[in-house]
Amino acid sequence: MNITSNSSLFLIIDDQVRLLPSICDAEKMLHNTGILIQGLKLLNVPMVITQQYTKGLGMSDPSIYLHTGTEDYLEKRTFSCWKDENIRQFIQNSGCRRVILCGIEAHICVLQTALDLVHAGYETVLVTDCTSSRKLSDKETALQRMLQEGITLTSYESLLFEMMETSLHPHFKKISALIK
Questions:
Q1: Is 180 a known active-site residue?
Q2: What is the pTM of this model?
Q3: Residues 14, 61, 116, 129: which is the catalytic one?
Q4: Cα angle at 145 between 144 and 147, to 5 degrees?
Q5: Can you give the residue range of the structural domain that contains 154?
């Protein structure tokens, strides 16, 4: 499967302020996520922010809203985004057949979302360097499980360049500058 920007939807899962202090390499993960968001915006990939029980876990990190250019999010109480009726409807109504994921925690909400999406017939892609957990071992176990289930793993830089396909892409210079 080649990952293209058309028919792709980007899900930013639960990068919330009360969770982040205990997340492994949270600062680097947020930095990478910011670059990815900016690149995907240039490539016109629609995106949605999800938040798990905002009242208890707080809003997403301010950088997420800054880079997406929106303060909109979809609230959930289920671990899997797919099992939340509003988020599932959003994904289905988008018409996209590929869902790109990132967020926290890799072994809980991200894993369960990825498993449900792939089993629902979506091409499911996880951006590994924009995803983390409290313990690195939990993230590594989740990545192994996702591979076994047919979920594609990639990095933010690899994804952006794959979507551009060529240095002649109109946004090549802007995206290259983001990555440097």
A1: no
A2: 0.95
A3: 14
A4: 65
A5: 8-179
Selecting among 15, 61, 76, 102, the annotated active-site residue is 76
Q: Are 91 and 50 in contact (CB under 8 A)?
A: no
User: Is-catalytic flag, 109?
Assistant: yes
In a domain, 3, yes or no: no
Residue 130 falls in the annotated catalytic set: no
The total number of structural domains that make up the chain = 1
Rounded CA-CA distance 16/21 in Å is 10
CATH number at residue 108: 3.40.50.850
Would you call the peptide bond into 105 cis, given omega within 30 degrees of 0 as the criterion? yes
Amino acid at 20: L
Q: What is the pLDDT of residues 155-177, one digit of tens each?
A: 999 999 999 999 999 999 999 99
Classify residue 82: in a domain, yes or no: yes
**Would you say residue 28 lies in a domain?**
yes
The active-site residue, picked from 81, 96, 102, 109, is 109
Q: List pLDDT tens digits, range 12-33.
A: 999 999 999 999 999 999 999 9
